[in-house]
Amino acid sequence: MYMFFFMMIFNLMALSLVRKHYLMSLIMLEFIFITLFNMFYLYLNFFNFEYSLGLIYLILGVVESSLGLSLLLFLVRKTTYMYVNSFNLC
Asked: Which stretches are transmembrane (predicted)?
């Protein structure tokens, strides 16, 4: 359980440090999602709950990642390449 806590802390630190590239920020958000899913799965497994809530959480994660990639694609197509290179989340 401590491993997931440390993974979450390191992922949040990496997200706060790597803000200069939009795609890297999306990847860090996906790592945070995977860590939360693993913690959620272990919680459901420990108390012998149904796994349908985990499936709903996975569906929401897929929707979140597809929205992030579609925003990245929109930025690349509608703006100039130099603007995308200088784009940061700060």
From this structure: 21-43, 55-76
pLDDT tens for each residue of 5-33: 898 899 889 888 887 777 788 888 889 89
Q: Where are the domains of the chain?
A: 1-85
| CA distances to 7, 32, 62, 77, 81 from 2, in Å | 9, 15, 26, 42, 42
Hey, what CATH topology would domain 1-85 get?
Helix Hairpins (1.10.287)
Tokens describing residue 20:
């200069």
pLDDT digits (tens, 9 = 90+) for 24-60: 888 888 898 989 888 888 888 888 887 788 888 889 8
Amino acid, single-letter form, for residue 46: F
CB 65 within 8 A of CB 28: no
Model's pTM, two decimal places? 0.74
Long-range contacts of 9-15 (CB under 8 A, 24+ apart): 11/35
